[in-house]
Specification:
14-stranded antiparallel beta barrel; mainly beta; two-stranded antiparallel ribbon; Porin
Length: about 280
């Protein structure tokens, strides 16, 4: 059993390269947030959107991936004047034994390349520092006693994003993760997955945003198709829904704003595993 759990935890040890549902908004919209207006959630996604964020804001979130108690995942970020810092952590712990852990620390900057009365071109960069610890092996007794340390280390990654905006209604964006191909280990080491996303958003009026996105891993022929809707019922309450194809998933959630504090919730289904619930809280200072 421990060996199976160890394998499962190692499978998720690259979550910060492949998990696209960071934050309640991304969870509720099935990850279709590469394009669209910038905000606090842009800290974890397309850094080009940070170009239009000028206020000082902080956000923190937590979930158990696939509702599994041994896969807790947390994130934290802050943004000011186009600069952002993000921190993410996943740890796997069974019966007080750490099977693995991984954390990611990132620094981002979004800036405006071109702007006129009707159009805006934005770009952004994110530098990531990954740290992983694979824990100890099961040992001769199978319970971790006299186990062998499986290794730890750090990696550096680079993400880049672009976005074009027309009349603040039409958005088209392109986002690439780990374009420098960071590698775990040496010789026969494993590359962290590289991915790219293409997103298109349309805001017919101020209270409604619709988004469509294609996401694909490099060296993979199949793409994920995602569609999300965000609707402001009033100044305090926002509802969100999303669907994903390949694999088929459904998501929903909401945000409630109280003065300068926003409480958000999102859930996303899985075609095999249980539902993932995510809660986030953000604040403007």
């Amino acid at each position: 059993m421990r060996i199976l759990l160890l394998f499962f935890s190692i499978t998720f040890s690259q979550v910060f390269s492949t998990y696209d549902y960071v934050g309640s908004r991304a969870t509720a919209m099935s990850g279709s947030i590469t394009s669209g207006p910038g905000g606090i959630w842009s800290i974890f996604h397309n850094p080009a959107q940070l170009a239009e964020v000028s206020e000082f804001e902080i956000v923190s979130g937590h979930c158990q991936i696939y509702n599994l108690s041994f896969l807790p995942y947390s994130n934290f970020g802050l943004v000011y004047n186009g600069w952002a810092i993000n921190f993410e952590k996943l740890s796997t712990k069974i019966n007080s034994i750490n099977l693995s852990s991984e954390s990611a620390f990132g620094i981002s900057k979004g800036f405006t390349v071109y702007k006129d009365r009707q159009s805006i071109i934005q770009a952004g960069l994110r530098f990531n520092l990954y740290q992983y610890d694979l824990g100890d092996s099961a040992g001769p007794e199978g319970d971790g006693t006299l186990g062998i340390n499986l290794g730890q280390g750090t990696l550096k990654g680079l993400d880049i994003g672009f976005q074009g905006v027309l009349n603040k209604k039409y958005y088209i964006a392109y986002y690439l993760e780990n374009i420098n191909s960071p590698t775990v280990g040496t010789d026969f080491g494993s590359d962290l997955p590289k991915s790219f996303s293409i997103g298109i958003s349309y805001m017919p009026y101020e209270d409604l945003l619709t988004s469509f996105e294609l996401n694909q891993l490099f060296s993979h022929s199949e793409s994920e198709m995602r569609f999300g809707i965000e609707y402001y019922l009033n100044e305090s309450f926002v509802i969100r829904n999303g669907i994903q194809i390949n694999p088929n998933r459904y998501s929903t959630g909401f945000s409630y704003v109280m003065s300068s504090i926003e409480l958000s919730y999102g859930l996303i289904t899985h075609h095999v595993l249980p539902i993932t619930h995510q809660i986030s809280i953000s604040m403007k200072l």
